[in-house]
Amino acid sequence: MHAAVVTANEKVEYQEIPEPSVEKGYVKIKVKYSGICGSDIPRVLNHGVHFYPIVLGHEFSGDVVEVGEGVTKVKVGDRVSGAPLVPCMKCSDCQKGNYSLCKHYSFIGSREQGSNADYVVVPEQNAVPFDKSVPYDQAAMFEPSTVALHGLFQNDYQGGEYVAILGGGTVGMFTMQWAKIFGSRKVVVFDISQERLALATRLGADAVIDTTEEDYMKKAMEITGNQGYGFVFETAGQVPTMHMAFELAANKAHVCFIGTPHEDLSFTPAQWENMNRKEFKLTGSWMSYSAPYPGKEWELTAHYFATGQLKFDPGFIYKKIPMSQAQEAFQLFKTPGLVKGKILLSNEED
Length: 350
Description:
The chain is α/β, with parallel strands linked by helices. Helices cover 27% and strands 27% of the residues.
């Protein structure tokens, strides 16, 4: 088969490599689309892989073409996405159903060969079937949707409150939609990009806030009658939005950091004191799994994709690029601000 193989730092070669075989309990998937995740960028551009050569890719969709002995969850011809985490199932965290916290995990597309190829082989439990009405490009977005939903569960989300979504990227757009699906008073999306704010409006945000405006905080608080937001989700992983979360939170609010920061984060005493004075609860969220594996995050994504309540928009996608041009695709990320949305590597004739 052909695959986009990372052979050295900043070097992705489209090579012919052996097609993976199917063992007992495993499923072979013919890949239609494989998305480039933000975590893949430093892997390619900043010596971030676990080993060379490696095939990356963990956000994908495709068709089951072969199943191993004993497989009952899916059959040949099924459309599937894939949960990339391969937990050990033996450690204390796995035994409690906290698979995201497993210390002995493997991961498709970083610790073992991934989906930037014609075929990928995954354990039966990692194959997630989806309805034929769901397009393959949408189904390649399973993983960011589940990351968003896991954040809601971590934040003990309940309907009826004002909700702030900080960051209008892919995860932020899904977080906003999940908050609406499960009931909210108003969901407000905060971003610096007019394109992302327009996308949020199309997808159903009740209001959007441009945080480059001088009086954005005043506008944001007025929406809530100056009471603040009962649920705050930081999805950008940026220092300014993490500070913003503490300011937007209402008394007794629930604040969740889904985004991962990549620089030092510090708070002034006055900023930090928000948590004391407001008595809000702060939690983190990591990956997207629950028991039984891979969890309700994946099951509910398949369901709400099929019903159409979890919406997909062309604005999610920046470009579809042939798998053979993966090297060129990763080079686009070297220009700051150029890539707005998801790049899908395609084995389709688009």
